[in-house]
Structure formats: C-alpha cells, structure tokens
Amino acid sequence: MDFNDSPEEAEYRATARAWLEKNTAEHKAEAHADDMAAGKAWQRRKAEAGYAQITWPKEWGGAGGTPIQSVIFGQEEAKFPVNYGYFTIGLGMCVPTVMAFADDETKKRFVGPALRGEEIWSQLFSEPAGGSDVAAIRTKAVRNGDDWVINGQKVWTSGAHYSDYGIVLVRTNPDVPKHKGLTMFWLDLKSPGVEIRPIHQMSGGSNFNEVYFTDVRIPDAQRLGAVDDGWKVALVTLMNERLAVGGSRGVGPEEILSLARDMDAADGPLLKDSAFRQRLADWYVQSQGLSNTRMRTMTALSRGQTPGPESSIGKIIAANQMQELGNAAVEAGDQYGIIADPKLAALKGLFQGAVMNAPGLRIAGGTDEILKNIIAERVLGMPGEIRTDKDAAFKDLATGR
Amino acid sequence: MNFDYSDDQKMLKDEARKFLAAKCDAKVVRSVLDNADRAYDEGLWKGVAEQGWLGVAIPEEFGGLGLGHVELCGLAEELGRACAPIPFASTVYFVAEALMKFGSAEQKAKWLPKIAAGEVIGAFATSEGKGPVTARSIGTSVSAGKLSGEKIPVTDGDVADLIVVLAKDGLYLVEKGEGVSAEVLETLDPTRSVAKLTFSNAPAAKLGSEDGIAAMQAVFDRAAVLLAFEQVGGADKSLEMAKAYAFERQAFGRAIAGYQAIKHKLADMYVKNEIARSNAYYGAWALNTDAGELPLAAATARVAASEAFWFASKENIQTHGGIGFTWEADPQLYYRRSRQLSLVAGAPATWRERLVSQLEMKNAA
C-alpha cells in the first residue's frame, strides 16, 4: 500500500505540471472578453498540446494516452484556477457518440472544432415524462422526404443556451416497446423551430434549460446509428461518462470545522460541543472514505484494470453529506441561520447555498434511488425491477398516450 | 499509486480464506458459543499458529515471518469473515504490538518468539469500570515491582499467559500465576472469552517509559486498524449472507431479493462497507509505515468499520426476518461479534472524539 506514482507516472505528472505552470501563467496574462472566451482560449491551448482529450487517438487530436494519464493531468490541472466546465458534456459524452456512429465527413467537420473549444455540444435526452426512465421519450420524429420532422420537448439540458450543437434522442416508432422505437440524431441548435428556455431552479440559479422542438427539420444524413436503434447509441453515450475520480469541492468537513471554531454555541465555541463533534467525525469519515475510494479507483487504472464498482458510490454520499452538513451549519447559527445574504451569513452564505443546491445534486445524473438500484443490480447482482412496460407498445403505455 | 493488496498479499489472503473455510465454519464458532466451558477453539488456535499467522508481522529475528502489517491486515479481514473464536486479536493486535512498540530487547526476545509459536496467549487489560478509560479512571498501581488493582473487562483474561496491564504510571507485563486471579464474565459475545482480573501484588515488569494513557492509546491506534479489517470482513460476510437469503426466500410469489426495500437496504450496506474498506486501507498504510497520521487514520478506520459492521450485522438479521431471530440461524454470530469488536478498544463515540481532537491538532499545526 502506497500513494506513489510509478516512475512513468511520476514523469508524466512532472511534465504535465511544468506545462500547466507555464501555460496557466500565460493564459492568465491574456485579456479575455468574458469567462466563456477565457474557457475557449484555455481549451485551445490544451488541444494544441495534446492535453484536451488525452485518451483519444492521435488522429482525432488526442494523445493516445491511458486513463491514468488523463486522471493525473486532471489532478494537476485542478490545482490551477482554470476550471471551465463548458466542454465536459460535449467532449465527454456527445462527441464520442458522434465519433462512434457518424460518417467520416461529419467526424472531420466536428471533432476538431469541439476539441479546440470552438464549438460546444449539448446532450438532449431527458424529457418531462422521462427523467430516471430515460427511454420513455415522447419527442417524436416523423420521416418527410430526406428529412425528419421533430416535435416535442427536452428538459434539464445543461448548457443548451451556450451550445452550438447537440445530440438528440427521439421516438421514431410508437408501435413497438419503448426501447425499440428510438433514434439518435445530431443537430444544429440554431435550427429553425428550436427554442431554448432557461429553467429557473429553486436555488435561484439557471444552469439548465428546456428545449422545445416545433417542426424542426433534421436531414436523415444527421442520423447516428440505425433507425429505431437509438437506445444502443444512447448506451454508448452514457458509457462515456467521465470516470468519477475528480476531487470534491465546496462544502465539507474543513469548511464546517472553520465555522465551528468561530461560532458560539450555548456553552462556548461550537467546536467544543460534544454532540457537534460526534457529527463532525462522521462527516470526516465519509469524506475521507470517498477520497480513499478514489485512490482505489486510481490503483485499478494504474494497473490497467477497469475500475471496480467502488467508484459508483461517490455521488450518493457526497450529495447527502452536502445537504446534512450544510443544514447542520445553518442550524448551528440558531435564529441567525435563516439569513442567506452573503454579506451577513457565515462564509458568504456557503452553507445556505449548500442547503438550496443539494436537492438538485441528489437528483442530477441519477437519483439516489436509481443509483441504489444500480448498485443492487449491477454490483450485487440482484434482480431488476419488474417492468410492466417491457413488452407493450409505447403508444399503449400511460406515458405514451 | 498502489492502494490495494499486492498480488502476494492477495495470495496469502486467498489461502487464509480456504484454510478458514475448512477449519472455521459456523459449527466451530457455535461450539464455543454453546459451551460455556470453552474459552476458544483450541484446534483452530493450533492450526493458525502452524500457519505462521501469529508471527506474520513479527520480525524474523524474533521468530516471526517478518512480512508486514498489510499482510496481517489481510489475515484480520479473513478472521473477521470467519468470526474466528480464538484469542488472536488479544495476542497479536494488542500484546505483540505493545511489545514491538514499547518492549526492551530482552522483553521482545523473551516473548515474541513464544507468541509467534502459539505458546503464549496475551491479553490487554485497561478498563476498570463503566465509561472510557482516562487517567482518572485508573486505580491500578505498582509498588516495588508488584502490581495491584482490578481490571474489568479483559478479553481473554481468563486464558492469557501474559497480560499487558495499564497502571497509573504506564504499561506493565504481568504473567499468569502469582497474585493474578480471574473470574469469567457473561458478555454479548460468548464466542470470545472475557474476564475480570484481580491483581494483588503480582510481579510486574515495566513496558516502555511512556505515560500510561499515551502508551495505551499508541497500542489502541495500532489495534484499531487491525480490528477495522476484522470488522470489514464481518460486514462483507453479513452482506453476502443477507443477499444469499434474499435470493432463497420467497414471499408474495417471488424471491425477496427483487423487492426494492431489500435491494436498497443491501445497497446501503455495500456503500458503508466500501467506505469502511477504503478507510481501513488508509489505516493499513499508516500502520505499515508508522506514519505520523496513524492516530487520525486509525480513528477514521475504526469509526467507519464499527458503523459498517453494526449496520450490516443488524440489517442482515432484518433481511432474514423471523428465522434470523432464532438461536440456530447464523446472523446472530456476526451481530454479537460486531458488538465485541466495536467495544474492545473503546467505543465509537470515544474514537469520534479522538478523531476530532486529531483534526484540531492538524489544523492548528
């Protein structure tokens, strides 16, 4: 048991770090119109050096590297203030799907610009009637000459308001069971009939969108995979989700420890309150447990193995801890805890923000309940849920009517 | 990055699992549970000694295999899975560790080879009554090389040949015999033997020069990591038992394994077990390298593993339903053992407090 890089890994890390030191300094010295422009500039820099998608083949602008190299670069990059999230979904999920299913001409047209941050992609799967049940898609596509005509609505589309292109999963056949009548396309989000409306979250922010389709025409040439075979294509997209080995940020034991030092409880500082200390210990144990679990994932990658199921538990713990720890900090303020004004609240309202954002984190990217099903079924090998919709035509389901 | 057992360590662990499957099935555990006269299973103890497990982390110069603590952690995990009814923890995690940490050259040469050979059973005697052990709670004292006081409870105290005793001014080695009497106690886990020990002017040799509580804590830190591996093994076994029963048991026309209430319960167990395993690995690293982080790593491992084993062992009974509450069903063995392991080196609440104290020191530094 040790935490040391192998000699090759250590060398890779040193090279990456030297590159990051030089290039982040140059990047920060440049003038950028806004955060998006800065993000695009940084992405271009990485692409030119082969750090944009390290595991992609060189012919597509990657470095032909290993997953552990990608993780090492990510760890080093996270130490610098260049955390731009605009390209994650496109490069992590959408473009790999395009690369797997599109013709050469399409790939040549889109892969490079996406890699260099010139064009941004969105993933349009979720719908009002299908969140956890993604295959219950109602947005329909009807063939019309060389085109398909799309009508319907997508929801929870991250970044659609600043994206150029997207991949969209639609229903092309309602007369067969739900998984068997879906088809995947790529499309220009500026197409006529596409309307993007930001969703106003309960936390006040707007990170997601509704996307409405009204008689949107998509050429058949933009189809990814066979007609009615879109579920298989979607599984490729979802498989490409980035390995959950990144560090956690935001609200954790360290933040609440610093709060507890300064905050008074009934009999002295909160940090001396024994009930609080017991809870703090449990939060630390969980955070440390997640961080140590990431080390095990890294070990599997380092040995050239596919990480085991241990990497799937992260979000369940992190999201619930954010909610409970945030709330404990809020309640520690007693009456004052209700104040969310960053000018007045502890740590600029960090904990109040955690309380309001945690409900979303427990739902996004797989609800707690779906993740527990996944652990039970895929890790422990327990039976899948009974599906009354498995063999019925989509149009005959309550969702499909 | 190498945050896992090595191939050699895995092989040792696999062999241990096979050995214990053959020599320590539930019948062996029950033979101790059901027989108040038996303190431990002598056949298994002898077999474990022959395998060399008692000396796996003891240096070769003192008769051990001189492998290391990660190997010992792997064995602990397997012993926990098997719910082994032997004085392994008392002898190896507490007494051998105390000797290796604080013993003089003579003390090590005298005792470690005997421990490695299975000729000596050890016990670690700290508590004198209800509540956590503190400087104020210790009445045991030594005068002119004679130790007097009362220790309760002492795991394996009735069968120990060598007892490491916490007195006011430090740790002492006391041999069974003159001035030592034992009274066996009824506990939550009869598969492990526990006694009250009374010392009246028992010959005692000082072990190390450390202050008493600090020395005890140093031994607890080491034992906590090893106990955490036993707890992880027991927690994993409890999850496997629950899963196997859920597939077997039919209710309302199908196996209960298909019900989401059962699936999510088992997923919750899995999450806690993985967190416990990851934290135990960190503890193993700290123990094996004698890292400065050991106190914090040990506390983290112990709190996580105590929680995981408690949860898995109680929800294993729940998954079994009524049959799980019978004497004949095996989930109770792990439920009982989870209590024993959570308490033997101090309760989780005590360790949570220690964990936060360590965090305060770390952040102040």
Describe this structure as you would to a colleague.
The complex is a heterodimer of chains A (401) and B (365). By secondary structure, chain A is α+β, with helices and mostly antiparallel strands. Chain A contains eleven helices and ten strands. Chain A has three domains: 7-84; 121-239, Butyryl-CoA Dehydrogenase, subunit A, domain 2 (Beta Barrel); 253-365, Butyryl-CoA Dehydrogenase, subunit A, domain 3. Chain A has helices spanning 7-29, 35-49, 67-77, 88-101, 104-115, 230-239, 253-262, 274-302, 314-332, 350-361, 368-379; strands at 121-124, 140-144, 147-158, 165-171, 182-188, 194-198, 208-219, 223-224, 264-265, 268-269. In chain A, strand 2 (140-144) and strand 3 form a beta hairpin. In chain A, helix 8 runs antiparallel to helix 9. Chain A starts with 6 loop residues before the first helix and ends in a 22-residue tail after the last helix. In chain A, 38% of the residues are buried. Chain B is of the alpha+beta class and 365 residues long. Chain B has three domains: 7-89 and 106-116, Butyryl-Coa Dehydrogenase, subunit A, domain 1, CATH 1.10.540; 122-211, Butyryl-CoA Dehydrogenase, subunit A, domain 2, CATH 2.40.110.10; 213-364, Butyryl-CoA Dehydrogenase, subunit A, domain 3 (Up-down Bundle). Helix content of chain B is 55%, strand content 14%. Chain B is built from eleven helices and nine strands. Chain B has helices spanning 7-23, 26-33, 42-50, 69-82, 88-102, 105-117, 212-248, 260-289, 294-320, 331-343, 348-364; strands at 122-125, 141-143, 146-155, 162-167, 170-175, 180-184, 194-207, 250-251, 254-255. In chain B, helix 4 packs across helix 7. The radius of gyration of chain B is 20 Å and the shape is globular. At the A-B interface, helix 7, helix 8 and helix 11 of A face helix 7, helix 8, helix 9 and helix 11 of B.
